[in-house]
Amino acid sequence: MTTNAADQSPAQPSTSKMTDEQYGALRASAAVWAGTSVLITDERGRVLVQEVGYRPFRLLPGGAVDEGESARRAAVREVQEELGVALDVRRGLAVDWVSAAAVGAPAEMRFPGEILHVFDGGIWGEERFAAIRLAADEIQAVECVEPADLPALMSPGDARRALAALRARIDGAGVVLLEDGVPVTPGVLDRVGVLRTARARHHFPFHPRPVPGGLVVRQAWCWAFAPDGRVLVLLEPDTGAACLPGGTPEGRDGGDPATTLVREAREEAAAELADVVYLGHLSDPEEPCARVRYAATLRRVGAPPVDPATGRAYVRVLATPEQVVELFDWGPAAAGQLQAVHRARASLRIPRAARRPVTELSGPCAW
């Protein structure tokens, strides 16, 4: 029986139909470039990008994979060379097939296409950012930018890839396969386009105590827990913006914010809540008011309704509380609110959810 050379690993001898030299020449004729990049965010979820002198666009840390070098080791080397930081890179986020047509490289470059790996560089705090020492001959500056700003700062393909990798990190489903920055099998975060518009920015202090007398309540949102420890999140289909169930108090609510969120959850998401627990409030210094936060158990959801306030049907998903925080820009106060959320979860006898892919609730569901 004769086997084909294409069925063998590169280390195996060539078949009777093709010599080693012929097989090597065939594979070399189809060779593509290999590149690597590293996605790093700060504690607010902003993405680190580099300004370089040889391109008009911002770049993620990274570069070409050298001969005989793995993509992971190249990522480690590039971060060390460009930022002066020793980083142990072990988690992949995306593998992108970058076509010659998408790049528009000059003919003399003879660009054959590229396999570009994106690795997770983690969430950096102030100490690690302070340790950055830029490669003076290559990197002019670094900055952390809102994910929604990436398309204006990066080349189109680089921005698509960075956003897809960031969604993959939030989703936790593993390495996503891309073609010219577009997921081959898009998840719900990709389909809705989460992070393509600026995240809700509420850098307001969180107070785990009752609202002071005389302070008007402008908003009531709820962390609605499913039995597996994940919570309900609403995604705006036109913008990808996220929000928790709830809304603005109305006269028919009788001045009770808990009544507001139960009503709003039913209107926005056809969600039925129970066991409502008060968490605390955010104080808005720009407008003297309170934005109250609750936790509750999620008993059931019906068919996706059209929200009377917007005329649109939200995309409803379940996500862990930690994933939820990554969809917003809440600043340092997010940590205190998250602690209150988990205290309430424990009091409701709901388990802590392990990180898992975000799940869409496309139809009725009961628990």
TrEMBL record:
Ranges that cross the membrane: none
Gene3D superfamilies linked: Nucleoside Triphosphate Pyrophosphohydrolase (3.90.79.10)
CDD domains: NUDIX_Hydrolase
InterPro entries tied to this protein: NUDIX_hydrolase-like_dom_sf (IPR015797), NUDIX_hydrolase_CS (IPR020084), NUDIX_hydrolase_dom (IPR000086)
Keyword line: Hydrolase, Magnesium
Domain Nudix hydrolase as annotated: residue spans: 31-167, 207-352
Signal peptide: none
Cited Pfam families: NUDIX
Spans annotated as Disordered: 1-20
Co-factor requirement: Mg(2+)
Keyword check for Cytoplasm: no
Bias (Polar residues) ranges: 1-17
GO MF annotation, one: hydrolase activity
SUPFAM superfamilies: Nudix
Domain of life: Bacteria
Cross-referenced PANTHER family: GDP-MANNOSE MANNOSYL HYDROLASE (PTHR43046:SF12)
Protein name (database record): Nudix hydrolase domain-containing protein
Species this protein is from: Streptomyces filamentosus
